Amino acid sequence: xxxxxxxxxxxxxxxxxxxxxxxxxxxxxxxxxxxxxxxxxxxxxxxxxxxxxxxxxxxxxxxxxxxxxxxxxxxxxxxxxxxxxxxxxxxxxxxxxxxxxxxxxxxxxxxxxxxxxxxxxxxxxxxxxxxxxxxxxxxxxxxxxxxxxxxxxxxxxxxxxxxxxxxxxxxxxxxxxxxxxxxxxxxxxxxxxxxxxxxxxxxxxxxxxxxxxxxxxxxxxxxxxxxxxxxxxxxxxxxxxxxxxxxxxxxxxxxxxxxxxxxxxxxxxxxxxxxxxxxxxxxxxxxxxxxxxxx
Length: 295
Hints:
Layout: H1 4-16, H2 19-26, H3 30-44, E1 49-52, E2 55-58, H4 60-81, E3 91-98, H5 102-115, E4 119-126, H6 131-136, E5 142-146, E6 156-171, H7 172-175, H8 180-186, E7 189-192, H9 197-209, E8 216-219, H10 222-230, E9 236-239, E10 252-256, E11 263-271, H11 275-293
Parallel strand pairs: 3-4, 3-5, 7-8
Antiparallel strand pairs: 1-2, 5-11, 6-9, 6-10, 6-11
Helix pairs in contact: 1-2, 1-3, 1-4, 2-3, 5-11
């Protein structure tokens, strides 16, 4: 009879798309993952994957099994944790974050290793795209990311954690004595990628403020954008991450906007099916933020 471990590996393969990627999530070698899947198929009497070389994809039977396997694992994890008087959390989750929030998430996860040694957290760094949809699709169990203007996807919850102000950033010497509007109209504008929620947020803000630009260079990395502004390649409007030292940098001119909407909301998206595990990360993030806000 197939073990719970085999079903956990099956879900990892289904969500990651390959034996190699799944092996990192379940702490096995790709060969061991392949052997477990062959054993599971033998036990169930049906093939679950279409295999083409090193590429695997769920077939029709595999797609039908996936939600049942996830429900089984969820119930099993709940039974393991439903021990009155015993609050140890047991299980494995994958949690992602945008680059500017990864340090906060990593510190939180390191602390969880001490308080919940049987909770395994796999971290992923993501730079763009609709990360909330990755949670909905089951590719991640939770993600610390930007709240967009759309509805929270079905089956997903969102907890606001903190906000980051939008700021104008330029080389200090080049910006001296010049207005934001003048600099935007005459210098290269370093535009956060419009395919990202941050880029769309900045564009909406600029339209509201009637801020015009002439030439633009669209980029994905906020860190690179600010580095180019520091080198006087151009100017930009970006969210300022928590604990950023931009305002104390003698090479940068950082200006805030008198607009309460000039900010991006950061929070934790969680899969409702996995919230019995991801809630531990959420509580730890809230504790970490509350502690850092204490004078």
